[in-house]
Automatic annotation (TrEMBL):
Gene Ontology MF terms in the entry: arginine decarboxylase activity
EC number: 4.1.1.19
UniProt family annotation: Belongs to the PdaD family.
Protein name: arginine decarboxylase
Key words, A-Z: Decarboxylase, Lyase, Pyruvate
Gene Ontology biological-process annotations: L-arginine catabolic process
Cofactor dependency: pyruvate
Sections of the chain in a coiled coil: none
Originating species: Halostagnicola larsenii XH-48
Length: 159
């Protein structure tokens, strides 16, 4: 059975890209090349909320992810959220992500509405959705990023 890990982080820095890199470092995936996919969980897969990724392979490897990401220049608030629900009996499932310059309650509502809509499109018997939201205040003169990622398996060589 394969594993998808849910990781998250927030960080502030003097540039937008530096804050994103620092948020990825908090999530433990700063040394990988992230490849975004849409939001389907394969059957026979375990989803674990771990916070910070373990060692997933050498620096520079490719990681397949579903990513919720938002960056703002301070002052302001930034939030990112990821929800997931799997069909029962180890069937496939869905992720749904939302992010923006808003509070965590708004993002959680958007994630829950989105995943419910995705469930309605499929003839699967789903488990109750789980949601992870990260939110942070950006101070004046800094950039702040919030990320929540679903990381599929381990890194793979990119070259």
């Amino acid at each position: 059975m394969s594993t998808i890990r849910i990781v998250w982080g927030t960080a502030s820095a003097p540039t937008a890209m530096a804050s994103y890199d620092a948020a990825l470092a908090e999530a433990g995936v700063e040394n990988y090349n992230l490849v975004a996919v849409s939001s389907v969980i394969p059957a026979d897969t375990t989803v674990e909320a771990v916070g910070t990724a373990p060692d997933l392979g050498p620096a520079g490897d490719r990681l397949t992810v579903v990513e919720a990401r938002a960056t703002t220049a301070g002052p302001g608030r930034v939030s990112a959220g990821l929800g997931w629900s799997q069909s029962v009996e180890d069937g496939p499932g869905l992720f749904y992500e939302a992010a923006g310059e808003t509070d965590s309650d708004d993002i959680e509502t958007r994630v829950r509405e989105g995943i419910e809509s995705g469930q309605d499109l499929r003839d699967w018997d789903f488990s109750e959705p789980r949601v992870r939201v990260e939110s942070a205040q950006a101070a004046s003169g800094t950039y702040t990023t919030a990320v929540v990622l679903a990381v599929y398996g381990d890194g793979e060589p990119i070259v």
